[in-house]
Amino acid sequence: MEDTDLVVLWGSNAREAHPIFFHHVLKAINNGARMFAVDPRRTSSAEWADVWLGIDVGSDIALSNTVAREIIHAGLQHHEFITHATAGFDEYAESVEPWTLQRGQEVTGVPAAAISQLAHEYASASTAQLCWTLGITEHHNATDNVLALINLALLTGHVGRYGSGLVPIRGQNNVQGGGDMGALPNRLCGFQAVADPELRGRFEEVWGCSIPGEPGKHISLMHEAMDAGELRALYVIGENPLQSEADAQTMQRRLSGLDFMVVQDLFLTATAELADVVLPAAGWGEVDGTFTSSERRVQRVRKAIDPPGDARDDIELISLVAQALGHHWPTPSAEEVWDEVRSLSWMHEGMSYQRLEDLGGLQWPCPSEDHPGTLYLHGRLWEEETGPKAPFSVVQWVPPVDTLSEEYPLRLTTGRRLDSYNTGVQSGRYPSPRRIHGVLDLSPEDAVGLGVLEGDLVRVVSRRGSLEAPVRLDRSLRPGLAFMAVHFPDDTDVNQLTIDAWDPKSGTAEFKATAVRVETLVPS
Amino acid sequence: MTMVEEPITIIPARVGGVEVELPLGSTVLDACRRAGADLPTLCYGPTMTAANACRVCVVEVEGSRTLVPSCSRKLEEGMEIRTDSERAMHSRRLVMELLGSASELDRAGPDLERWMRQARAMSGRFGPAEPETPRVPPEPGHHRPPDTASAASVAEPARVEDELYVRDYGRCILCYRCVDACGVEHQNTFAIAVAGRGFDARISTEFDVTLPDSACVYCGNCIAVCPTGALAGKIEWDMREQGTWDESRQEVTRTVCSYCGVGCNLDLHVQDGRIVSVTSPHDHDVTLGNLCIKGRFGWMYVDSGRGV
Question: Least CB-CB distance to B164: which of A4, A428, A431?
Fold first, then answer.
């Protein structure tokens, strides 16, 4: 990151959500890199950008396609890389052809000149990093949004080189590791397909049982199965879905309607209060293991203190549940579990605890004990033998599901603040002097239009629910755009408003685009 | 841009007659430490550009008219360096004595204690320290005429303005490390700067507002580089005031932050089964010792009366 010539932050407020990653962006900027920020809000990250593209929520594919067309029309695409390493360029080029700068401006709200500038600078930079977070992925077409960004990297050759790449910054300490370990409906650890009998067979041999070859359900499909009465029992580990999932009223109905729910957590969360059984878990600082960061770096986490009361390590709790169900599961140490992962997942094979300790972490793939780990992926695309070509994807812009109307004229988007995290279960428990409790952020223009002042209590209404919140004026918002943080569900539960329309490819709900209206309340 | 392996040029030099060879770009301080000299430093931090402020690391370089600050001077071929000339030792001793007379240094850690002992530096040599004058408000840059009966000092009441930080500026030696960490070296927030001149200079927020009213984002990256305990986490400061802070009873465990996915390494300092402080290792390439407010303070949920 520090050595790149151009940084694009697209749907990422890293200055607040990933502050230490942003330190590396700042090093690049202070080394002379240019920066573009694509964000509906002029965030504290965007304040560092040379150019801020204030995009209308949910028009990312339109913007990407417009940028692509401009690059192609200016002849700035990386011809050699496209021929050597990619597939499907012609079809892609044809698909973006209708996206003139003028049409791009109309759909995205970004001035044509700014779109053109991004296109020209991104394509001309000798190295460029394209980074994104939930601003791209919390949409009903999340996967297509990501594919649209990948297209730009393939078009310009900004992938698989030192200083040039695609950078999805992970929002949670170990969400990367969770996926790597097979906490996905269709993969076993190391991203090995459940449906592949040969791969599955290796796991069956080690585990001494048969594994269903049918992929399981992701969370949104689980919700549908609950609605259909097919999913009757739920085992929730370290998650607060009652407050973290979109459309909280529907979620409440789903969880309350279950026959049986177990929650395993550090705290008696709102979800745990609905549970039939709560298992007290030991947590961070109290157990050993590994986390895998955004850069695929596996690092050791260590026990520093004893857990309180009867709280126990998740490994032990899961083993005890299995034993109670009549299985003869041992209670392995974290290292023994990890060594089993290494025996089954080639990309982790070279990462012994000793090496993780000695080297301060290793980046996968690391297939053998003499392998140094992998600094960046996709370098093969630049080699003589590229292996499988990287495909362009034809992606069409589809506006957000929750459409704006006369009745619901404001676009509400959600996100994080610097000092807080998700539903606040952890971050609500330290005395932050920077805490901004549940408020509705409005642009000064909209506040004037509504006749409200900072601190006034208003009712925010969506097609699904409503809540009351005090107004906070935020100059980073353009007229028509409102913002709420997700951290204070006990006071202002923004998921009363959000829509659970979800991406059929990833299962992610559209937290970022809700249509609302604001009603003023008579001062009491 | 591609990664180009630059050829490493080796610079030969001598420290106190001992031959050393270091790569181009090394400092005189690096050379002295390579030769085994236990040279004091205060304003120098390994993750930062040398501020050149405190002058406790000066050494003699043959051919140089003045003493040389070893932390910032680049090593040159054939340099003849002496760390223990009378002039260098006298200067280092005097600097430590002046700093010790003006600021409380009893929380600056065992290294400074050792360096002062080795240099036979006596903080009280310039007379008794000036009594603490509660400046209300203690305006930075405000000139106070010297009281000739006692040694001038920067003593002032500690500023306890929230539950996370304490600014105990009676311990400040104006090394600039906090200002640089908050500024262009790491955090780029620029919440603090040096206000005033000469002996009246102090570290200050904009218009000397309280920390909660300032631009501070509570990352604590200033605390991480403060060499004298003038900036401290509230828990640590309280324990030190109560006399319960005891590093000999503390164990440090390295782990990874439990919040976002950047992978910041954390050192958990545990005393009597409780986390009392969280830092990040300065040699970790993700953090360089820096954290955000959640990394440095957000761990408190662990100890927040859990029990289901």
Answer: A431
